[in-house]
Amino acid sequence: LHGIPVLVKDNYDLEGTATTAGSLALANWASKKDAFVVQKLKEAGAVIIAKANLSEFASSAVDSHSLIGGYVHNPYDLTRSPAGSSGGSGAAVTCNFAAIGYGTDTGGSIRNPSSWCNLYGIRPSKGLTSIDGVFPLEVSRDTTGPLARTAEDMALGLEVIAGTDPKDDFTQEADASALLGDGYTKYLSKDGLKGKRIGYLNSSFSYTSKKDEKDENSEEVLHEPDPKVSQMIKRTRADLKKAGATFVDMSDVLTDDYIMDVYRDCAEHDDVYTTEYDINKYLHDHDGNTPCSTMKELLETGKYGIEYTNLEREKDEYASSFEETENPYTAEINGFKRKELWNKILTYRAAINDVMNEKNVDAIMFVQDINVPVHDTEDINNNMDQLIANANAAGRAYSFILPAYLGNPDRVLPMGFSETDGSCTIPMPLGMHFIGK
């Protein structure tokens, strides 16, 4: 990447700049070190020209708004959202401010902006890239990865940051440097789809839900892609087939019920609270250089705009120092040990790989959104019904559960642009997801 301009999300440590994570509480300081990924970029010769805005604390998947940088807008329609939480990285690359943008993905934060900003983006397998030196949301699910305008740039952007980090346990357990091998760019080919088998999940392309989710007897309602985007999906499938791919229906083995079972089992991690420990450790590792030394201090400043789920407890429940912070990775909390959860995740991960092997598929394809990107600002804050209606419930589950909880890689590839109608006068982009083993 010698001389190539890139940018990183403002939750990456970059020596000489503040890592704000979008919060005023973390402004006005200068990191004395680089994140491991930033070190790798510098070693590859990249020129890091900027840090990009994000949703505060990387907490939102549908917008990128912070008190530090305000709202990020979609480059194709400034009234719409670029998604989140890496929307600044996505919008900047779309606008040609940099060749590659780097974001983080805990539940969709690289993939959503890639989809809504007409980019290629990848959430790597958990443990392939380091998160050391990145302000955390949830360490066990946080990942780092690139957003780019081409598949080649995406592959190169991942190749230069992947590898084992002595300070990141997940990369050590995965032996990330061995997984990287001789890289990814050598495998790029215009004939790369010939002979590939792609699984698909029918319920991602149309699904049913209860008209009233609280009423078991409520009638079923069919949700199908909006006419503005249905042609994009059809064209993408036709293009994949023309390039040599064949499709395999996997709806009978990866049912929505099974995927939701995975979620219910793995959601027990919510009883093993890690965010406070993760944040306190991050702040502790900076040796008193940050404006706050604990999450409790951060909250007591009142200088933040968004309370995400893990901040909703009363401030006095939080530890006053890192040394007092209970370590959820070793301690038994609420009768549940994290090791047991991790073994459960590994079991499910192996089961998904077995299903893909049995069906002999190289990836699983699905769409997450069945309508164009939502309008930003007031709509995002006040009109949650619009957001729920915009997203395919099953697709959102696939995107969130299999990659985010189990650690499978998920790539987003652009499908092109929507048609227009009275509610959408500018053609808008969306992407297709491909989950791998």
Give structural attributes:
437 residues; alpha/beta
Strand count, sense and barrel status of the largest sheet are: 10 strands, mixed
Q: What fraction of the residues are assigned to beta strands by DSSP? A: 15-25%
| Strand-pairing-aware structural class | alpha/beta
Provide the residue-averaged pLDDT.
89
Calculate the terminal CA-CA distance, rounded to whole Å.
28 Å
Number of helical segments with 4 or more residues: 15
Give the proportion of residues in helices: 25-40%
Counting DSSP E segments of at least 2 residues, the number of strands comes to 16
What coarse outline follows from CA principal-axis ratios?
Answer: globular
Classify the oligomer. Answer: single chain
Q: Largest sheet, order of strands side by side?
A: 2-1-5-7-6-15-16-14-8-11
Low-confidence stretches: 382-394
Rg over CA atoms? 21 Å
Walkthrough of the structure:
It contains 15 helices and 16 strands. The chain has helices at residues 36-43, 87-94, 111-116, 151-159, 169-174, 176-180, 202-205, 227-242, 256-266, 275-284, 295-301, 338-358, 378-382, 384-390, 393-406, and strands at 5-9, 47-52, 65-66, 70-71, 100-105, 120-123, 143-148, 197-200, 207-210, 220-223, 246-249, 332-333, 336-337, 363-366, 410-417, 429-435. Mean pLDDT is 89; it is low at 382-394. The relative contact order is 0.15. Helix 9 packs across helix 15 (393-406). Helices cover 31% and strands 16% of the residues.
